[in-house]
Amino acid sequence: MSDPRAHVEVRGLTMAFGTRVVQEHLDFRIGRGEIFVIMGDSGCGKSTLMRHMIGLNRPSQGDVLYDGEPLWEADDDARERLVDRFGVLYQGSALWSSMTLEENVALPLAERKRLPPREAGDVARLKLALVGLAGFEGHYPAEISGGMRKRAGLARAMALDPEILYFDEPSAGLDPLSSRRLDDLILELRASSGTTIVLVTHELPSIFELGDNAVFLDAERKTMIASGRPQDLKDSDEPKVRAFLARGRL
Amino acid sequence: MDVERDDGDVRVRLGGRFTLAEGPPATDAVERELDRTSAARVVFVADRLEAWDSALVSFVFAVAALAAERGKSVDTSALPAGARKLVELSLAVRPRVMPAAPPEDDALTARVGKVALKAWGTAGDGLTFLGETLLAFGALLRGRARFRRVDLLHALESAGVGALGIVALINLLIGAVLAFVGAVQLQQFGASIYVANLVAIGVTRELGALMTGIVMAGRTGASFAAVLGTMTVNEEVDALQTMGLKPVEFLVLPRVLATSLMLPALTAYADVLGILGGTFVGVTMLDLGAVEYLRTTQSSLALRHVLIGLGKSVAFGMAVAITGCYYGVRCGRSAAAVGQATTKAVVMGIVMVVVVDALFTVLMHLLRL
User: Fold this and answer.
1) What is the distance in angstroms between the Cα of B168 and the nearest Cα belonging to chain A?
2) Which residue from B168, B171, B212 is spatially nearest to B310, judged by alpha carbons?
3) How far is A99 from chain B (nearest CA, A)?
4) Quick check: A36 and A69 in contact, CB under 8 A?
5) What is the pLDDT of residue A95?
6) For chain A, percent of residues with pLDDT exceeding 70
7) Minimum-distance CB partner of A94 among B96, B146, B238
C-alpha cells in the first residue's frame, strides 16, 4: 500500500546500467509541500536517482509513485499526465540554446497548455520577472551569466505551475551570493505556492537552510544509509553521514 | 640513494638531487631489500639531500605502497617538512578497493560474438528510431505533430540554400569528368556526340542524386549530429522530454522533412550543372557545337531518368537526415562523444546513401525502367 500522505514515494527502487548496479533498495516518501534533499558523496547516483524519478531512466526494479499513481507501471498517456505535474531545473540549466529566454519559457506553455503565442509570451515574461530577469526576455542563454541561466531555468521549470519541482545541483558553479539568492527563491516558491521541492545537492548550507527531510546515498554500499531531518542526521549512527554533514570535522 | 639494514629497520638514505629533471628514482633496490628482510619498518634518512620536488614525494609514496603490501610501516620523520606533509596528504585517503572486473575472454569466437551482439543492438535501436520517426510522420499527416515551424524553416535553409555552392561545384566537375572520360573512349569510334547522351543519362539518373546525397551526408548529416549531440550533452533533449515534448517530433521531424524536401530540389539543380559541365568539355575539347550538344542531350533524356534520380534523392535525404539525427540524439554525455557521433553520422550517412542507391538500381532493373 502507498502512504496516503506521501506526495511522492520511491518504492523498492533499484537503478542499474546493464549489470552495473548504481543504487538498490531505495525506499522513501516525500510529503506534500516538503523540501526534500537527496544527498551523498560525488558519484553515488544522486542525479541518476532524479532521472529515474522524472521519467528519463527506467528503473531495473521498483517504481516511483505520485499520489499513489505509479510512474513506470503506467502506460505512455498516463505517464505523460504525471510528467506534466512536475518541473525540472537541470544542473547546467539545459535552456534551449537556439531560443531566447522568453521563447524558452513560452514553449511549454504553447505546446502543453495550447496558449496562443501572445498569452504564452505574457506568462513567460511574468515568470522571468518572478526570478528577477525582467528585461532579459530577448536574450539568448549564451548571452547571460551562469546564475542568470539558473534563474531562467527555474522560470521555465515553473512555467506550467508544477506541483513538484526538481532541482539538480542548483548551486553548482554559482558564487556564494548567487547561490544564496537561489536558495531564497526556492524558499519563497514553497511559501507562496506550496510546491513540493526535491533538491539534489551536496551543498551543506543549502541542505541545512532548505531541507525539511533528506536521504543519504552511499556510493560504496550502493544504497541509502540514512534518512530524516538534516539537523537530526548530524547525530546519525552512520559515521559517514556525520562526517559528511560536519564537512569531515568530527 | 643507498638501501641498508640497521637495527631491524630498512634504512633508505637519500642523497644528492631528487628532482623530476634528474628523473624519478627506481624502487627496485628497496623492493629487493623488503623481500629479503623481516624488518618491520622502512626509515627514510635525508641528511645528504640537496634538492627535491615531486620526484622525491613520488618515490616515497611508491615505497610506502610496497611496504604496506608487505605489512611494514614507514617512518618519514627525517624527510624535509614540506615533503613529509605531501607524503602524509597522499597517504591520508585509503585507495578505494574496486571489485575486480571479470576476466576478458579474448578468444576469437568471444570477440566475434561481442561485435555481433553490439551490431545487433545498434541495428535494433536504429530500427526503433526509424519506427519513432515514421510515427512522427504519421502524426504530421494527421496534423498532430508538435514542432516549431521556425525550426523547419531553419532546416530548409540549412539543407537547401546553404548547400547550393558546394553542390554546384561538385556536380559541375562530375559532369565535366564524366564527359572527359567518355570522350576519350568514344572518340576512338568516331562517336563523340554520344558524350552528350552519356552525361545526360549518367548525371540525371545516377550521379546527380548520388553526389548530392554524399555531399549532404558530409555537410547536413554531420551538422544535425553535432547540433543534436550538443543538445543531448547539455540536457536540452532531457528538458524537452520532461516538458512532455517528444524529441523525435520536435527535433528530428523538421530536419528529416526539410532534408527530404530539399534533396530533390538540389538534385535538379545538380543535374543542370552536371550537364553544363559536360557541355563545357564537349564544346571545348570535342569541337561539338553547344546547340548540337544540347539538342542531343534533350533527345536522349527521357523523363523517367530524371524522375528516377529525383525519386532516389528523396530517399537519400531521409537516409542522411535520419542517420545524422539518430547519432545526435543517441550521443553520449561528453564533448568527445559529440565528435564521435558526428564522425559516425558522416560515415554511416554515406554508407546508407550508397546502399539505398544500390537497392534502387536493383529495383529499377526488376521493373525494367
Assistant:
1) 29
2) B212
3) 10
4) no
5) 96
6) 97
7) B238
CA angle (B216, B218, B223) in 5-degree steps? 85
What is the model's pLDDT at position B175?
A: 95
**Is B168 a residue whose pLDDT tops 80?**
yes
Contact A56 B231 (CB under 8 A): no
Cβ neighbors of B294 (< 8 A, separation 6 or more) are B196, B279
Give the closest-approach CA distance of B243 to chain A in angstroms: 6
Measure Cα distances from A88 to A159, B80, B222, B251 in Å: 10, 53, 30, 20
H helix or E strand, kind and range, residue B346: helix B335-366
The crossing angle, in degrees rounded to 10, of helices B303-329 and B208-216 is 10
Q: Do B238 and A80 touch (CB under 8 A)?
A: no
CB contact, 8 Å: B236 with chain A?
yes
Best of A22, A66, A96, A161 to disrupt the B interface by mutation (most B CBs within 10 Å)?
Answer: A96
| Separation in Å, CA of B83 to nearest CA in chain A | 24
pLDDT attached to residue A182:
87
Which residue intervals of chain A are DSSP H helices? 46-53, 76-83, 101-112, 117-130, 146-157, 176-193, 204-210, 230-233, 239-245
Calculate the alpha carbon distances from A66 to A13, A88, A98, A201, B351 in Å.
14, 15, 33, 22, 46
Scanning every residue of chain B, which has its alpha carbon at the shortest distance from the alpha carbon of A78?
B244
On whether the CB atoms of residues A110 and B148 are closer than 8 A, the answer is: no
Residues of chain A found within 8 Å of residue B328, distances taken between Cβ atoms: none
CA triple A193-A198-A202, angle to 5 deg: 130
In angstroms, the Cα distances linking A174 to A148, A177, A244 are: 10, 8, 21
- DSSP letter at A65? E
pTM of the full predicted structure? Answer: 0.81
For B13, residues 6+ apart whose C-beta sits below 8 A from its C-beta are B1, B2, B3, B4, B45, B47, B48
B243 touches chain A (CB under 8 A): yes
| CA dist., res. A54 & res. B186, Å (int) | 68
Q: What is the pLDDT of residues A7-58, one digit of tens each?
A: 999 999 999 998 899 999 999 999 999 999 999 988 899 999 999 999 999 9
| Measured distance CA(A34)–CA(B318) in Å, rounded | 49
Contact yes or no for A56 and B242 at CB 8 A: yes
